[in-house]
Amino acid sequence: MTTNRPGSPLFLARRSYRFRRLMDAVRLLPVLALAFWLVPLLWPVPDQASDPAVTTSHALRYIFGVWLGMIVLGVFLWRRTARQIARENQS
Amino acid sequence: MVSLNQLIAVCLLYVVGLFAVAFAAERAAVKGRGDWLLRSPLVYTLSLSIYCTGWTFYGAVGYAARSGLEYVTIYLGPSLVMIGWWWLLRRLVRIGRSHRVTSVADLISSRYGKSNLLAILVTVMAVIGVTPYIALQLQSVTLSLSIFAAPPNLTGGAGDPINTAQAAFWVAVGLGLFTVLFGTRNLNVNERHHGVVIAIAVEAIVKLLALIAVGIFVVWGLAGGVTEAMAQIDRSDIGTWQVDGGRWATLTLLAAAALICLPRMFQVLVVENDDERHLQIASWAFPLYLMMMSLFVVPIAVVGLDLLPEGSNPDLFVLSLPLSQGQNNLAMLAFLGGFSSATSMVIVATLALSTMVSNHIVMPIWLAFGQGTVQQSGDVRHVVILSRRLSILFIIALGYFYYRASGGSGALAAIGTISFGGVAQFLPVLLGGVFWRGATRTGAVFGLCIGFSVWVFTMLLPSFGPDGALSAQTFEQGLWGLAWLRPEAMFGVSGLDPTVHAVVWSLSLNTLAFIFGSLVSFPSPVERLQGAQFVNIFDHSSPTRGWTASEAGTEDLMIMAQRILGPVEAQAFFRAQAQLQEKAEGLPEPTPRFVQALERELAASVGAATAHAMVAQLVGGTSVSVRDLLAVADESAQMLEYSSQLEIKSRELSDTAEKLRSANDKLTQLSHQKDSFLSQISHELRTPMTSIRSFSEILRDAEALSPEEKTRYASIIHSETIRLTRLLDDLLGLSVLENGAVTLNRQKGALRGVLDLAVTTAQAANTRTIKIIRNPADEDVMLETDLDRLAQVFINLITNAQKYCVSDTPELGINVMLQGDQVAIDFIDNGSGIEVASRALIFEKFARVPGQGGEGAGLGLAICREIITRLQGNITYLPDAQGTGFRVTLPAMPRNGASDNIDAAASA
Question: What gap in Å lies between CA B57 and CA B55, rounded to an integer?
Fold first, then answer.
């Protein structure tokens, strides 16, 4: 991450570069979430009891795990970008 | 066991509490206090929770008990939309704020050229789509009441079965009252309904706490911990993954679409949004809320299936589980949670729908038929408010009657999905309007009509069951016996899940029709303007002009605005606008900008289409000028204009700099010249002085001098004195000329005579001969000027040619040309010309062309220029002559007049 060296042009450039990459992450986060949540489409749906099956507890852990991960990432991105977004909206 | 009366008492107490909270919030907002809470991102996020209705509170457990994990799609879709806030919601919120959008119908109508047809279409579709949903909420409340009346562990119904119709009626009345009281306090829809928002925020907390409390009780109290609960889940009927892939994807899409398109969600997401920054916070906080709401659904369902007797309604497990275990207080809390979910949804849904019905259906009709024109005086606000209140009651009544008609049957989840499918039909038009400038009104009407028809035919009507709304024959053989029109196998595609089938067909046909209609139609100018503004919402911060308001008197606009905004508000608005126009007092000028602002202000109260129609009544019609269209069609037009202006400016600047530079060069050269002049003049004066001094000393001191020698020395002294005198005469003459103290002796004469004199004099005075070529025929020009001075100039020019022409056979051509009332005399020799660098200075004093011999002081041409300027003429160097060339231009006497004068002079 960036080091605090005020006045140095390298610092400013790096910060705005970092902000842009964070905004890329903000844009791509729903794509990631969608990809994860479409994974259950690949799980087998058993016709008979003997067929291989994904247990509901496993499915629960997976879906809610992805959910929690997305929320944590969302919080992280919000903390890193919110101030800059507000500033850009004002100007 | 909780008695029904106890329950109703608690419920009433809760409702009174809600009223109190709403009332306190309204009062705080009026006093300007409590903004930290009322306008906080927390309240914004909690208000979004009206997405979780009675359907999700009770129905999700029932859904899970029937189909396993499929219920979770209903929460995954909205989570995806929220996580992707940057793509769509941010745009919608910005559009909503800058266009003062009042509802989803208003947004769509405003985007497609403020079309009232579209507004009505969307409103009717929304009412049809959402009414079953409102009925569903009433059903969930009465169902939950009935379970207290007939608890599940006493099957057979020893308790008094409650009158569900009556219960639903009173619930509907209560909800209508609350919505009317707190939902119509202010006319401006963009102003937040603080009372309503804070009440639904409280309800959001209650329902979350209730569900989590039941969940904790079930997992730790009944199942015995997380591990045991998980094991029990895997042992149950829903222990394996059994979700059909098509349904998983379709329902996720449907729920995502519903979050954007549901009128109540649009109301809280966009219309009631107070601060764009809240959106990003809600982008993770709302998914968190949804996750917590759905966390305990599966355990409750599994434990309910395990513990409760066969045939119990799984939709009510949330209530019946605690009740069966004797947890009355928990059951009461769960009941309040369900009650909260249902009521908050009904309140906001009714509010949103009533705004749409009032703005897009009642007001236009009232304007068209009711009170004639808008110029009338009198407050119209009560009409708007009344129409909104009646709309609220109408919609709640509609929900109630639907509930009565449907008999309160069917699983909760099924009704919810149908409702989602209906409002999802707005999605293509909404997305197209926000992202695609080519989307047109015609396309939107096509898409909405076709999508909605397919939805009614494949989803809404079949939901009433065979021989319900559609005959069994239609199910078997298709509409009118057409096999490809079977409601569950359109175009012969059979074997699909009915929900997937309906959603895929309705949305894809909707999108196709929308795109096709947009491609083949041509939008009106207003539509194109609006389209460009919506699609480029982040570029166009200033509204484009749409009105030519010259015909509209500001007084008329004032009268109309007062009726809708209220006198005080309208006056404040007009005063602010007048100040913007920098008018100290009085009404603002009806500029297009002002009328546009007024229209936006009115739109916040009555919707874009109605506001547009009202302003149009006064102003006489929208005029979109070619310039407006061009500006929109080519966004870079302004930029181009600006940059071309910049280019002109910079060119001017560089021209000026060039001039300054040459002026500076000239000054520098002049300064150098002055220096060289000083040394030159001292040299010029010193040379004759030296010889005068030495020869006079010889005459004085030498003893023996022959008379010849004396005469020679004396004549040398004499000629040097003459040279000195001539130099001083030149200097004196020039300074006299420069000071303007010269007196001109004007007389008439022929140019030829002057030239004759000059040539003779010059040739006599100089030893070097030059061949002079003249054309006497041209020289027959009469002049009225100082002929002696003119001759002096000519002599100087001829003498210069004699002195400095470097040719072996020197020639000087003197050409005379008449140019209008001017006569130009060219003196061109066959020498080498003057170098470019020296040309600028030859007319300056003491300027001498370097590398030339001669004894002149460099005053000749300076004197010539001074003289010619006095004679109202001009002398220039001819740069493109073959040798050194000068042109003297003088005003000539008119030929006829000149001869008359000569005759007159001769006769006199």
Answer: 6
Phi, psi of A62 (to 5 degrees): -65, -55
pLDDT in tens, B409-456: 555 557 788 888 999 999 999 999 999 988 999 999 999 999 999 998
Q: Which residues are registered as beta bridge partners of B847? A: none
Q: Which residues contact B97 (CB under 8 A, 6 or more apart)?
A: B190, B273, B276
CA–CA min distance A8, chain B (Å): 30
Which residues on chain A are in Cβ contact (under 8 Å) with B76? 37, 63, 67
- Contact in structure between B699 and B714 (CB atoms under 8 Å): yes
B822, containing H or E segment: strand B822-829
Question: What is the token pair recorded at B34?
Answer: 């409590």
Is A17 within 8 Å of chain B by CB? Answer: no
Region B689-712: mean pLDDT is: 85
For residues B538 and A70, the model is more confident at: A70
Summary mean pLDDT of chain B: 80
For B55-66, give one letter per residue: b (16+ CB within 10 A) or e: bbbbbbbbbbbb
- Residue of A67, A75, A77, A87 to mutate, testing the B interface (most B Cβ within 10 Å of its Cβ): A67
Within 8 A of B287 by CB-CB distance, chain A residues are 67, 70-71, 74
Q: What does the domain layout of chain A look like in residue ranges?
A: 27-42+54-91
Three-class DSSP labels, B141-208: HHHHHHHHHCCHHHCCCCCCCCCHHHHHHHHHHHHHHHHHHHHCCCCCCCCCCHHHHHHHHHHHHHHH
Select from B42, B284, B293, B300 the residue whose CB has the most chain A CBs within 10 Å, as the one to mutate to test that interface.
B284
Distance CA B377, CA B555 (A): 11
Torsion sign over Cα B333, B339, B342, B348: negative
The nearest alpha carbon in chain B to A23 belongs to B86
ipTM of model: 0.88
Residue appearing with tokens 């919707």: B607
pLDDT > 70: percent of chain B: 84
